[in-house]
């Protein structure tokens, strides 16, 4: 027998079973009667009874083929009946094709397979739970992008997304489906009914009285939305639910009939094989011995070998059929796994695999294993969640048994697991979307959720009652039961990875670990670059589970290697050495490095590579990498080589090529067209290595090349006496003793990359379940409070509240059980420790990389990103069940991360804008919380001072807004009225919005925690030199002027849009930018307040050359802000009154309190001489208005002439209304400041005339504007009716010169 595959011919292995030369020897192996009994026992006929044992024909290996043919004979009529099924139209094989040219529409189109009578069924696997309609249609149905299955006559569909059935009209039907569910579509054309089932449970009859008769046939059909996916099973594989519960399904047939003849033959051959495993020949006593299958061993007995050869001679071709593999072989192996302990099951599976490889052609075994793993993966992925997870456990145990077979494992790892299958599925534990079907009600009969009560915008956990305490403890016990069951599955998954990471199985080939590394790197590349097929990318939820299992297996092998090599390190001390980032041994694809593009770094840092890492880049090769076409010319011999130096013996092909006296020809692989342009530099650069820590010597130059992941061997990774493998090019700062095996370092590097790709994002998504619990708990508590307050006579309201209470309670029961699953599978203590370990790995890696100086730029950006994000996950995602403070070395880790953030947020070696912004934001978040802020204070003093110095650098040189956030957070809690954590004005008017994030308040942040230590560093630096303070403050004032001007311009546009008569909408992005500009203005004012408080002499000591100028600029800006904000019925006031969504943070309080804090520091707390200077500068500014200061204490402005009086009930802003946030002492200081300015204004007015330009204010004194101002005033009044400064509308203008002249004339008369 022969077959062809891939252009190559394969022939069946021949065992010469009946050759004349061997007949006598074969029949003489055992006694003829014993052999006959044995063969009859193995190849027993299905209808053979005990009475036939005496009359049966003796069997031997000469007549066995004839007997076996009779045993496997299937009636031809039965075999041909598949082609002649009444009521079925079309070919025997069902093919699913696109038709109609419309996206999302699929129909069976190849010869239109359909049914006209009888009972039929097909199954649909829901891969995504989006919008789709599944069912049946007739040939006359016409679909388009608007009308799909169920939207036309004679088409019927079930939609589990909207839980409805469709046939032109729609009604409620069935229940919601989820990804992984299987929908069975059943049609009974004898009775004219159509029904559906979900996961084997009938949903009832959906449609009746179907149109039937001559010319009517129905075809399976589906319409689905874009990017939705399903998988059909028309019968090419065994149906998952051939028997539907709660329904009579007798007589229903799949559209594609199973291969009945093959199944019969396969089942009979499997029975023969079982008999071989359970019966043993005892030639000494001449009898058959019964034994367990797990005790059977292949010991080379000729009788057994020849018997098995006859079996597999027929069985081999059958095991290449998909249906037979899943229905026969898979069922047999699963039965073995379920029947006995794992060790025995693994032994039997190994025997089966040994026999497959022994008696079948390699291509047949490979095809069989491929189909077997595909079926196994499909079963595991879509098996329902049961309370004890028994289905998942059995599938994983069978997977382990198969992968523990070395030859099978290497084949599957090389060709199937990553290339054909999405094998990451084996490491995923899917979350049950339907709690009742997952059995969580049995595991967790009692539910519980935290009870929180909002008060003044803060969530406080009230003391629990004894009943609540009992419920909580019962709930926790249920969670522990669930966790233990999940841990069983997780341990099996870790065992799979341990098998794949085995590096001791290199007998006769490459070890599994190095095959895994190649596939793993390719897997990372596909997911990192996005070049792969989108459906093939690993879903984030799979990646999370895979990462945790990989870390467990990695640490196991790491510590195991430490046990046998004491000089190496424990996994607790793991990190990735920096040379891996620049020696080209590990491919990082197109991922960004800290210093920019890799090709640029190689060129600009080639001297540092030579001096620090003993790596020399050939200038000729650097030049060659810039060319599109690489030539094949020979390289010139090195100067030292031309002088006649001898070359050592050459290594094997994969080893290093050592430079010698003769020029080396340029290898052809350098110009391979398969190399990507992004990696061409790595693949073509000639790198020379010298012995570390010794002067460069020409005789020690060694040529190496960078190999792709597929080309590398074990020696290229682990190294040898010739090279250090992945660790080649070790810098002087790195220790010489190895950390662990080099291959484990690459796995560790891949684990860090995995976290960066999608794990962190997925961890954040899963927090949504906890948020939902909190929201429903608050809603339930509010409902219960309303029930208690509702009068008994209002029975209608009581009934509605009771109904709401029941809905919320049921939803909380469901969510609390789901939350238990999430905490056990995603946020458990062990998972938290994995993320914490990964954080510490990144910290050590960054620290070691930083010691290499300029070579730090080669580190991929994702190491810093993972360090930042993993800390954020530990702090925000795993609480409150698990606290980061419970982790070992918690404070030390915080301090190390603080040192990294403080040093690298302004590191010139880091050029990427995104990573620099991430570092800045992480530092800003870090100083918000007491524990992390104290960690910043614990770093060495010189690092703290350097950090503050970078923060005080002029804002024009970097993202000033983020830097300002950090300075503000160091001050929050010390400023005037700056002790709030929620926006005070919202707590008064709209408490539900008080938690909105803003630069003014950190949302649900902890109590303000200012740092006096860092404030002192800031003060010392501002006093340090003559240029530090002026450059910093000028940049702050410039940015304040810009931010506030932009804010005013935006609210003008918003006000104009709001006053239009036609209906219009303000762009939400514009509102967001407007609010951001306001928040930035407030924060910049707070920085000025901090500066004046810490170093007042910068503004008040006029012996400094820039103090007066800074003070005048500050006074001008403060007066402009006050005039814009405090004017009654002005633009700011009108926009605040609108309370537009997105502008919740815009209010009088935040900005006026910040300005007040600056004025109080200048006019009340300063020395007498400083107060006098500040007062004179403030009053001399043309924009100063005393009424703006009075406005702070609620003293309204007198109405302008000709305007209406304000409404008597109009509320005026006043600091006195915020006594919860402003102390009595602070209010007294404001009153003192107002009295001081009132007195000083009166003195100035009495002493001299003041030119008044603000025409909307009551005139207190008269004066003549300077001549050059008169044309400006006239021009302004011709084009605008707003005041120069306060923007109030000008009602009338009077010429005081004419009035004075008329008065003088009348007096003279």
TrEMBL record:
UniProt keyword annotation of Cell division present: no
Domain B30.2/SPRY: 41-239
Matching Pfam families: SPRY, TPR_RNF123
Annotated region described as Disordered, given as residue ranges: 630-649
SMART domains, sorted: SPRY
Highest taxon listed in the record's lineage: Eukaryota
One GO process term, biological-process aspect: protein polyubiquitination
InterPro entries on file: B30.2/SPRY, B30.2/SPRY_sf, ConA-like_dom_sf, RNF123/RKP/RSPRY1, SPRY_dom, TPR_RNF123/RKP
Keyword field: Metal-binding, Zinc, Zinc-finger
Single annotated GO MF: zinc ion binding
CC per GO annotation: cytosol; nuclear membrane
PANTHER family referenced in this protein's UniProt entry, alphabetically: E3 UBIQUITIN-PROTEIN LIGASE RNF123, RING FINGER AND SRY DOMAIN-CONTAINING
Protein name: Ring finger protein 123
Gene giving rise to this polypeptide: RNF123
